[in-house]
Amino acid sequence: MTDDTPQERRVDRRKFLAGGAIAAGAAATGSQDPHALRSDLFLPEEQWRDRMQAPDDGKKYGWVVDVRRCFGCHGCEVACKAENDVPLGNYIRQTIYHDFEKESGGVARIMAPMACQHCEDAPCIKACPCGAMHKGAGGSVQVDYDSCSGHAACKDACPYGAIYIDPVANQAVKCHNCTHRVDEGLEPPCASTCPSEALYFGDLNDPESSVSKMKAKLESEGNLAQLRAEKGTKPRAWYGVDEDRPMREWEPKVPREGQSYSKEAYSVYQWKEKEHRDG
């Protein structure tokens, strides 16, 4: 028997449920350390070692995303959806919106295009139990749809929220660098559609490629950053940032392990959200 009032008991219950939610979130990521990967999902190395090796084609495909140039037109997303028949409510790529107060005064809006980071040390490959996740041309991380069973371990292991499970086929879907176009000498449609020239794709082994030149330019200016590099996945995507658009401001809004891009990201209620996490 307790002397607590009904209101106090309701408050205590909310605290209990909140604590349970935090514990469940920690269990879902496999660790309370936000820097840690879901290594509990990884298979023995002999089961993924060969799939982590890219074909010996001399290519090294990668991306540079100049966040400073993106104005949020969604052209890249529309082109991606059209090219890959992505259903409503799902996304292979998405633009993160974030409003924040600048240290120098005033308010800035950041639009940061997101997609698979095509990691050299890809957690999704290590976690895939059916052998569907593998390296394709130029080191692009691909899904073999003759093998994918929709297990979703890849989604749970991805630290960038770049994979979703198709609701009809029950298979993993992600950016594959549109290699069916690249193999024919074309760019991925997102890059060729971008009107602000914020997306650069190509062979990083070719110093004369547009992506290599932009990467070198941003690096020399000190304006080059990688998303959650502390995860140790060696992503092949770099971002053009500056003091008015620092990655620390918008990084917390990028999905994490077990998450996918959501249509809720475009709700007006999210635009001015100041959500900061350790990461």
Task: Describe the structure in your own words.
The structure is a single chain. With 279 residues, the protein is α+β, with helices and mostly antiparallel strands. It has one domain: Alpha-Beta Plaits (2-Layer Sandwich). The protein contains 9 helices and 10 strands. The strands form 4 sheets. A 4-stranded mixed beta sheet has the order 8-1-10-9. A two-stranded antiparallel sheet has the order 2-3. Residues 1-31 and 275-279 have low confidence and may be disordered.
Task: List its salient traits.
single chain, 279 residues, alpha+beta, Alpha-Beta Plaits, two-stranded antiparallel ribbon, 9 helices, 10 strands
> What is the CA–CA distance across the termini?
44 Å
Total beta-strand segments: 10
The CATH topology comes to: Alpha-Beta Plaits
How many helical elements? 9
- Give the percentage of residues in beta strands: 15-25%
Low-confidence stretches: 1-31, 275-279
Short description:
The chain has helices at residues 6-29, 49-52, 75-84, 123-127, 153-157, 179-182, 189-193, 210-221, 247-250, and strands spanning 61-66, 94-101, 107-114, 133-135, 141-143, 164-165, 172-173, 199-203, 224-225, 237-240. The protein has nine helices and ten strands.
Which secondary structure elements does this structure contain, and how are they paired or packed?
Layout: H1 6-29, H2 49-52, E1 61-66, H3 75-84, E2 94-101, E3 107-114, H4 123-127, E4 133-135, E5 141-143, H5 153-157, E6 164-165, E7 172-173, H6 179-182, H7 189-193, E8 199-203, H8 210-221, E9 224-225, E10 237-240, H9 247-250
Parallel strand pairs: 1-10
Antiparallel strand pairs: 1-8, 2-3, 4-5, 6-7, 9-10
